Amino acid sequence: MIKQILGRLPKKPAKSGEKELAGAGTSLPSPTADARTTTDLTMSSRLVNPSSYASTVTNPGQNYAARNAGAGAGVSNGFTASAGYEALPSFRDVPASEKPSLFLRKLAMCCVVFDFTDPTKDVKEKEIKRQTLLELVDYITSATGKFPEPVVQEVIKMVSINLFRAPNPAPRENKVLESFDLEEEEPVMDPAWPHLQIVYELFLRFIQSPETDAKLAKRYIDHGFIIRLLDLFDSEDPREREYLKTILHRIYGKFMVHRPFIRKAINNIFYRFIFETEKHNGIAELLEILGSIINGFALPLKEEHKLFLVRALIPLHKPKCVAMYHQQLSYCVTQFVEKDCKLADTVIRGLLKYWPITNSSKEVMFLGELEEVLEATQPAEFQRCMVPLFRQIARCLCSSHFQVAERALFLWNNDHIEGLIKQNSKVILPIIFPALERNTKGHWNQAVQSLSLNVRKIFMDHDPALFEECRKKFEEEEAQEASKTSKREAIWKRLEEIALSKSAQ
């Protein structure tokens, strides 16, 4: 009986000091169909100055699951959904001394997360929050003094509660992988974007602001926050990924202490994508950030950066959906070769390792990337890989898909590549001569025939003796092959005659 009575008593509320910063590894609430996350707006009346705020307002996202357990449809985060949500005074209407306090109250107000799946729900409150967010953006943009710690803490808290949400609808990883094509399907636009966009803009301006002290802010924009920010790159909404790309780049530039961790975290996303899921919406954006980072690498390149090229960038050519991010990937790879020409051999052999066999459009992309890499390749590195490289190019020249053969022949339009080939024509011409000869005589596409004749003429003009030697050797091999074919056909014909004679007996 005593236990039953005690069980009905209200539990002691958590102390205001026992809170965790949202975004530093805590699990934040997600929008649901029946409730919204709220914060105790009555606390705002007790605010006197920014320094007292941290000790008076509890984290709206703290222990959400426990506080919401057993609550009815009209209750969220310990407060009723019908609680008043009224606009606070404008910054223009209060004295300068009260603006810092009002700023914190508005931040607390924006910690409420509304349900956008129903456009008819909380229309007035949503508009109040949108206008409040716009005011906060203006306030941060026009700030003229360093933001104190309570402000930094509450900005990161508000940003975390709004951005770090459960995906809605369910992520595509839960669907049958073969049932959709990321390139064909329309992206899912987040219905909450009218608020999310302003939150992203606010956060971007906060990071960029000269009044944001990096040494202070790094306590709240920590590794846990960065990991959750990176998780958002899998959003299907391209508008969100574009903001995330800019914000992560600014964080990388402002917080030098986080740079190694950011690179490592991006590496881990790539590894999971390459070797496990092959499903991620933000690979192109992450590569775009890395392209800028690689461009700023100091010389000589660290071993860590070279390992990143070998273990992450080159294997990114493997997934079937490489077309979605190939332009950014090619730029990153080429940047490495331009910074350290000795990496050309590693890159070219890596491309050959993942060279597509049955995907013609992917082959065309690989040939385009190969041209960019070769343009930055020096003769010494070219000689190391030219034999396997031109064996693959010879196969491309023989392709029945005219775009593959045509793209391979376009390599000779590049003066640098043509110069490398001419310097090593004694090795290269014997490898590709059969393909050129067969194209000029028998390829079904007229453009491929014409281009093959042009390349053939380049070799003939450069070294007539070598060309004639290769032509004679080719004719001898063709005659030998014809002889073998004739003998084989004669044997089969003789076997057929023997079989017929035995069946007639």
TrEMBL record:
Q: Does the keyword Cytoplasm apply?
A: yes
Per UniProt, the keywords (alphabetical) are: Cytoplasm
According to the UniProt record, where is the region Disordered?
1-36
GO BP field: signal transduction
Q: Where is the composition biased (Polar residues)?
A: 27-36
- InterPro entries named in the record: ARM-like, ARM-type_fold, PP2A_B56
Q: What Pfam families does the database record attribute to this sequence?
A: B56
Localization per record: Cytoplasm
What GO MF annotations does this protein's record show? protein phosphatase regulator activity
Its GO CC terms?
Answer: cytoplasm; protein phosphatase type 2A complex
Functional note? The B regulatory subunit might modulate substrate selectivity and catalytic activity, and also might direct the localization of the catalytic enzyme to a particular subcellular compartment.
Give the family from UniProt: Belongs to the phosphatase 2A regulatory subunit B56 family.
Q: Under what name is this protein listed?
A: Serine/threonine protein phosphatase 2A regulatory subunit
Q: Which organism is it from?
A: Panicum hallii var. hallii
